[in-house]
Amino acid sequence: MSDTGQESMTRREIGNWWSTGVIRIAPGEIEPRGYPVQELIGQASFVDTVWLMLRGELPDPRQSRLLEAALVAAVDHGPQAPSIAAARMAATCGVGLNSAVATGVNLLGDVHGGAGQQCVELLERMAALRAGGAPVDRVAADEVAGYRARGEYVPGFGHRFHPRDPRRDPLLGLVGEAVEEGVVPGGPLESALALEAALSEGRARPVPMNVDGATAVVYASLGFPAELARGLFVLSRSVGILAHAWEEHGSGARIKGPLPRSVLAEYTGPPTRHVPADRRA
After folding, report:
1. Exposure class string for 31-60: b at 16+ Cβ within 10 A, else e
2. Using an 8 Å Cβ cutoff, are 115 and 212 in contact?
3. Nearest alpha-carbon partner for 254 in 78, 79, 83, 90
4. What is the full per-residue pLDDT of the chain (281 aa) written as tens digits?
5. Which enzyme type, at the first EC level (predicted)?
6. Are the C-beta atoms of 257 and 89 separated by less than 8 Å?
């Protein structure tokens, strides 16, 4: 093989190593999913572009509206959220803004930030059972009974702070409208409402959906895989994390810890004691 042929093969091999269907880049050309970026600018919203990058096509405006509502709903929940508090503390420690944001984002795991993904997985599991002919109320009751038997929380329901999450009703209302218009299927909403009813049965105080459950209904209805539900939550919450990190950055505070300086953590170890004399140098 000639040197020119060998060089051509090497270039193809290198190009194939990072081959992607997400974007085409060439000198003077940028095409996310095949669309020239200059045509997207001013014509597609940021949410449209999120959909395009993840799904490969531009969304219907009604799909875009529903996705945007879910992203707006989960933007922030104040410094009592660990991801927000951590970002604010990091911002007072001399790190850059990007590091402060990364600190908050890195706290979004299975317990704090993962319930939306887990709820979509639950809705997908219920959909499979319903496809086999099981009635939704029975499926929901069985799922709730299973979580209770394992001593686990049903992901996406109840809130430690809000008796009724104020984000639930508007999100589910938009999903209901989209179902009526034929934009999305009704299965995820029906399953989630059945879970809510099963959780509240026999209780004086109901257990309504929280933002994780309501956004899970949105993401499942729009056909996003469960793992992307967490990714979309991270994208949304990153905005709140950024805002809090920037505010704290401007406060002038230094080394802000989890407790005010006047408050000390309660000590639960042994009382004050002294090193035995025979161990002293």
Report:
1. ebbebeeeebeeebeebbbbbbebeeebbe
2. yes
3. 90
4. 566 667 777 888 888 998 999 999 999 999 999 999 999 999 999 999 999 999 999 999 999 999 999 999 999 999 999 999 999 999 999 999 999 999 999 999 999 999 999 999 999 999 999 999 999 999 999 999 999 999 999 999 988 788 889 999 999 999 999 999 999 999 999 999 999 999 999 888 889 999 999 999 999 999 999 999 999 999 999 999 999 999 999 999 999 999 999 999 999 999 999 999 888 76
5. transferase
6. yes
Indicate the Cα dihedral angle 71, 74, 79, 83, nearest 10°.
Answer: -80
Both tokens of 35, joined, read: 């669309």
* Residue 197 to residue 169: CA distance in whole angstroms: 15
Contact predicate 210/161, CB 8 Å: no
Domain spans of the chain, in order of start: 25-59, 61-256
